[in-house]
Amino acid sequence: MMLLNQRTLFLTILLSAVSMFAMADDTDVPNTDSLYEEIQRTVAEVDFGGMAAVYHPDAVLVSARSTAAISDIMPRWKAAGEKLQSDGGQASVAFRFTARQHNKTSAFDSGIFRYATIDADGVEKATFVYFENLSVYRDGRWLTMMERQMAPTSESDWNTLADSWK
Fold it and tell me: Kind of pairing, strands 90-102 and 106-118?
């Protein structure tokens, strides 16, 4: 009986040590805050070169009806952003999260983004959209591999999510 208890104790200690090592390993995992901060900056500054740089070269945008390479979408986003700016408007984007999963090489975030434009007359139009984002960590930074823009949602849904990710 004593041998069984010692073996059980040894296995418990071993499993605890492995678990603690795994959790300690995750403390050094960078989260994707820098990715979303950079997206916010590039939208506000109409920096589409910077925006393109947050996407992996093979990144894909998935919407409710289609999929497309980000490299095919970026020229449309750029044209719309530059037109808004030349018309005297500005844009912003903000994020709130429902789930965030990270390890040292990949991340999956989901939540709602709020994209807003303000025209030259100061009229704001805001859109709220559920999103998912799959990213990889390469060369010290996060790159989006897949951005999924799902169903539009409401400001009240947005307001239910915490604004404390930074």
Answer: antiparallel
